[in-house]
Amino acid sequence: MVALHLLRRSLTVGILVALPGALALAQDCVDYTKHLELVGRWQGASHVRDVKVHDGILYVTDQQDGLFAIDWSNPTAPVTLDSFDPGWVNKFDVAEDRAYLCALDNLYIVDISDPSALSLVAAVPTDNALDCVVYSDLWTTIAYVCNGEYGFQTINVNLPDQPDYGCGFSYASMSFQDAVIDGDALWFAVGEGGVFKFDISESLLYCPHGIGSTNTPGFAYGLNRGENSAVFVADGDYPYGFAAVSSGDPPHFMNSLPTDGTAYDIEPIGTLAYVADGDAGLKVVDITRYWEDPTVIEEIETFDSARELWLEGEYLLVADDGGGILIYRVLDIEPAFEAAIPVIHGSWGTQYEDGLVYSTPVGYMLSIFDYSDPAAPVQLAEWINPTILYLTDFRVRDGICYGLGEYATRDERDSWVFHIVDCTDPANPLARGHVHLGGSMLDLALVGTHAFVACGEGLRVMDVSDLDAPSLLTTLTISGGTVSCIAAGNVLYLGTPTGEIVAVDVSVPSAPQLLQTLPVSSSGACWDLAIAGDHLYSPTYVWQGESNFHVLDIGTPGAATVLSSTTITAPTQYLVCDGEFAYLADVDGGLTLLDVRDPSAPRELLTLETGFATPSGITMTPTRVLVDTGYYGSSLLPFRRQCLANTAADDPPQAAIDRFAMRSSPNPFNPATVLTFDLPRAATATLAIYDVAGRQLRTLFAGNLGEGSHSIPWDGRADTGSRLPSGIYLARLTAEGRSEAIQLVLVK
C-alpha cells in the first residue's frame, strides 16, 4: 500500500448541472490509481536513446541523428533549437556547459553553452561507449565511461583535446551498461553481473576502489539511488524487471518484481519508482516495502518502447525510442476528507436516495439533509421518536424509511421495533406503522412489498405492503443467527457471525428456502455485504485481529464460489462497493479504498484516518462516500469517490483509440431512449444498465456485433420487467477488454 503523503493522483472536477426532474449531479471525483498525465510530446528524431534536462533545456540523443537541444518551456509544444550529428550515438551525460555523448569509437564532447548553436569541442577515443557519468568540480572533470563488455574506464577530460586516461576495469562475461554517482559512491549496472559499487572519494577519483557487488536475477540495464537506503535496478527481461539492492558496504540483493517487458531504466521518488519497461511502456511501482512487497500499481502504454527516464520537477520525461520524447506531469493530490456534516449526538447509520442523506443519531430517529450540492448540505428535518434509542439499521426506498430500532428504556432493551417513517416530504417526516419484535435485529433488505431482517434467530420476513400495519410474515431459523443481509433479485444473502454467507430463495416470501451455506472465514464475522453485478463483497472482522476481504461469484444462485480472500491492513466492519472500487470503514477509525476491478486479486490503494474511533457505518452517493463517525464524532465525513471508468480523467493521447462514441437520444428521457455507439471492428460486446451504486439492473445486449454504428433501445425497465424510478443511470458498453459509459437521466 502506498503511503498517503507521497501518493500522486489526478483530480477531475466537473460542473454541477441542473437536470429537469432529476437530481443535479456534481461530476467530481478523484482518480487514486493515476500517477502520470501525458501533457506533451517531441517527435524530432527516429530512435531516441536518452534524455536529460540542464539549465532548463531539454537534451536528447538519437541513435542515428545525434544530440538535440529542445526548448520545452511550454511542455505541450516543445521546440527544437539545434542539433549536432556525429553519427551513431547512445546515451550521454551533461556537466557544466558540456554534453558527453557515448558512441562506438569516441566520447564526443559538445559545447552546449548556447543551446541554439551546439558545437563539437573534442572527440575522445574510447571503445563501445554505452553510457557515462561525469564528475566535475572547480579543478577537474572526469568521465566514467561504460564500455559494455570491455568494462569501464576513467578519463580526465578537464582538457578535452588532451584527455588523460586513468584506470580501466574489465570483467569477463560482464557488460557495463549504466552508471550513477551518489556522493563518494560510483554505481554500475553490469548486465548479468548485477550491481557494482566503487569508492570515488577524493584520492580515488582517477582510480576508483571496488567496494563490492551483488547479483540480480536478470540483466541489469539501469539503476538509480532511492531516497531511502536502497538502489533500484532496471533488471531486464520478464520474468525479471525491477530489483532492489541495499546501498551498504558491500551491497546485497534484497528483492525483485517481474514486469511485462524489458526494464531499461528506473527513477525512484519517495514511495514510488517509475520503470521504463521497453515495449510494455511504463510501470509505476509502489516501493513502500521494497524489501518484501514491491507492487506494480499502474501500467501506461507508450507509443513505442520506453528506454530512458528523467525526473525534472513535476515532470517525468520518457525517451520512447521511435515514439520520441514523452512529457508526463507527475500528479500529486493529497487524499482527504471534506468538511464534516454535523449530526447532533453522532451518526450511527446513513442512507442516500435522490439527493437526500438520511442519518440516524442517538436519541433521535432521523436527521435528513439535502445533499444535492455536496459543497453545501442543508439540514431539512430532525425527527424525534422518544421511545427509540437509535436505529440499528434502516433502508430508504422511494422516500419511505424502514428501520430497526432499539427501545430507549433500560427494562425494554430486549424489545425491538420494526418502524416505518414516511419521508416523502423530507422536511416533515411522518411516523407510519410499527411492530414490536423480541431479540436483536441488525440488518435488513427490501424486495418488493417485503422486508427481510437479519436477526439472532436467522431471518425474519416482514410484510410491508400496508405502510401503516407492517407484520411479521414468517421466520427462517439459521443456526447461530445472522448479522447482515442484502438482496440480488429474489435471492437473499446473509452474513453470519461465524464467517459464512447464506443464500436464501425469497421468491415466495412466506416460504423462504435455504439454497446454500458457504464458509468464507474460519475466524471472523461477515458484518456487512455489498453486491455489484455478479459479485458479492464482504469483510470479515475479528476483535483485535486481522481482517480479510472476500469476493464471491454469485452469478449462479445457490452455487456461489469464493474468488478471493485478501488480508487488509485495518480491521473492518462496514463497506460499500460500486463494482470497481470498494470503500471500507474500519473499527480503528479509518477508511480503506480497495481496487476490485480484478475480483480475483483486490488491491489496497490507500487508508485514511478519520480522527474518530470506531466508524459506525458507510454509504455512497454519486460523487461521495460518507463515513459515520458514531456518537463521539457527531458528524458525517465526506470523501470524494474514486472515478469509475466513465468518469475518470480523460485517457492520455496514446490511449485515445477504439473509442465507442456512445450517445443516447433523448436524454433525459421518458419512457424510452436509444443508445448508439460505434465499433471500429467486429467484436463481442455487452451493453448493460447500472445504477449509481454500481448495481447491474439490465442487460440490453450480449453477443457479437459487426464493425460500424449500432443502436439499441432501452425502455427504462430492469431485467425483471419492472419500471425503474426516476433518477440517474449508467449505460456501459464493454468490448475487446475496454469499457465506455454514459449517464442516462430517467424523468417522470
Helix content: under 10%
Rg: 31 Å
Structural class from helices and strands? mainly beta
- For the termini, the CA-CA separation is 45 Å
Poorly predicted ranges (pLDDT <50, ≥5 residues)? Answer: 1-27, 647-658
Morphology: elongated
Give the beta-strand count: 70
Q: What share of residues are in beta strands?
A: over 45%
Our count of helices gives 1
Strand count, sense and barrel status of the largest sheet are: 5 strands, antiparallel
General description of the model:
This protein is an all-beta fold. Strand 36 (350-353) and strand 37 form a beta hairpin. The chain is elongated and about 100 Å long. It starts with 9 loop residues before the first strand and ends with a strand.
Characteristics:
748 residues, elongated, mainly beta, 5-stranded antiparallel beta sheet
Briefly summarize what is shown:
It is built from one helix and 70 strands. It has 748 residues and is an all-beta fold.
Topology:
Blueprint: E1 10-12, E2 16-17, E3 25-26, E4 29-31, E5 36-42, E6 48-54, E7 57-62, E8 66-71, E9 79-84, E10 92-95, E11 98-102, E12 106-111, E13 119-125, E14 131-136, E15 141-146, E16 152-156, E17 164-169, E18 178-182, E19 185-189, E20 195-199, E21 209-214, E22 222-225, E23 230-234, E24 236-237, E25 241-246, E26 253-258, E27 262-263, E28 265-269, E29 272-276, E30 282-286, E31 295-300, E32 308-312, E33 315-319, E34 325-330, E35 341-342, E36 350-353, E37 356-359, E38 366-370, E39 378-383, E40 388-397, E41 400-407, E42 415-422, E43 430-438, E44 441-447, E45 450-455, E46 458-463, E47 471-477, E48 484-488, E49 491-495, E50 500-505, E51 513-519, E52 525-526, E53 530-532, E54 535-541, E55 547-553, E56 561-568, E57 572-577, E58 581-586, E59 590-595, E60 603-609, E61 617-620, E62 624-628, H1 630-633, E63 635-640, E64 663-665, E65 673-679, E66 683-691, E67 696-705, E68 708-714, E69 727-735, E70 738-746
Antiparallel strand pairs: 1-4, 2-3, 5-34, 6-7, 7-8, 8-9, 10-11, 11-12, 12-13, 14-15, 15-16, 16-17, 18-19, 19-20, 20-21, 22-23, 23-25, 24-27, 25-26, 28-29, 29-30, 30-31, 32-33, 33-34, 35-63, 36-37, 37-38, 38-39, 40-41, 41-42, 42-43, 44-45, 45-46, 46-47, 48-49, 49-50, 50-51, 52-54, 53-54, 54-55, ...
